[in-house]
Amino acid sequence: MPNYATDSPALEAAKVTPAELVRMKDRGEKIAMVTAYDAPSGRLADRAGVDCVLVGDSAAMTMFGRDSTVSVTMEEMLLLTRAVRSGVRRALLIADMPFGSFQVSDVAAAEHAIQFVKDAGADAVKLEGAGTSTRRIAAIVGAGIPVIGHLGLTPQSATLLGGLKAQGRTAEQAERMCRDAVALEEAGCCAIVLEAIPEPVARRISRAARVPTIGIGAGAACDGQVLVWHDLLGLSDGHVARFVKRYAALGDEILSALQNYVSDVRGSRFPDASHTYKMPQSELDLFEDHVQ
């Protein structure tokens, strides 16, 4: 098994590509995807062997403390993608196209996707929805950029969907989602994220699709899974979605560490001699003479 903790030539050779994701699906190998928003998180995800790192528009909440994804801008997403790029070497780096960056026209969608690749180093982009989004996807793919689609709960259009809640729970919705998945694949998507949909619907789409499906709240039948960095590591405040599994409680660890730091500073326990710099006695004497 490769050692992802090293920066060796073999690590570069093992770089994940969209074609490799399809081969993983064909081999029955599950795909692991996680979001990241800065260089350290990208580097750690890469070293852990994550296959895909998504710079998600969820940064609006996780990084900027906002209430929804719609307010995050192209400038902010480009900045975050550049930062994550500096930490990611092996994994496929995917940039989320923010609200307003692809809805207006095919030309605008392609131009913004090119920015992510040319200016921020993304390997691929992700955009939400079907319908007109299929034309945008075709335009971006036509520009030579891999695209990941996104069906089900699409947070950028949550208002139209009636809020942040599961989708595809009626036969009509489920059938439409299956048709949308076919349309996304035909438009050129190299993978499709399925968010907050019933497991039987995700299974049907995953079996029919030639490209991988990446689930988030869509059950185990998907070809891979994605979780938000802050949710996975226990850095989120308040309620988290039922599909989240917390693998650590780093928020509690960080809070405890900061409280201990504050206590040590106020109690004059930090810094001690081991944290300070010294100078030769002769130089100290000379300094004292000059100061006097």
Short synopsis of the structure:
It contains 13 helices and eight strands.
Structural overview:
44% of the residues lie in helices and 12% in strands. The chain has two domains: 9-248, Phosphoenolpyruvate-binding domains (TIM Barrel); 264-291, no CATH class. Helix 3 (39-47) packs across helix 5 (74-85), helix 5 packs parallel to helix 6 (106-120) and helix 9 (171-187) runs parallel beside helix 10. The protein has 13 helices and eight strands. The protein has an eight-stranded parallel beta barrel, surrounded by seven helices. With 292 residues, it is an alpha/beta fold.
Sequence-ordered SSE layout with sheet pairings:
Elements: H1 9-13, H2 18-27, E1 31-35, H3 39-47, E2 52-55, H4 59-62, H5 74-85, E3 92-96, H6 106-120, E4 124-126, H7 132-142, E5 147-152, H8 158-161, H9 171-187, E6 191-195, H10 199-208, E7 213-216, E8 224-227, H11 229-232, H12 250-266, H13 281-291
Parallel strand pairs: 1-2, 1-8, 2-3, 3-4, 4-5, 5-6, 6-7, 7-8
Helix content: 40-55%
| CATH architectural category of the largest domain | Alpha-Beta Barrel
Please summarize the sheet with the most strands: 8 strands, parallel, barrel
**What's the CATH H-level homologous superfamily of the largest domain?**
Phosphoenolpyruvate-binding domains
CATH level 1 class label of the largest domain: Alpha Beta
Distance between termini? Answer: 65 Å
Strand-and-helix sequence, N→C?
A: HHEHEHHEHEHEHHEHEEHHH
Count of spatially separate domains: 2
The radius of gyration is 23 Å
Overall average pLDDT: 92
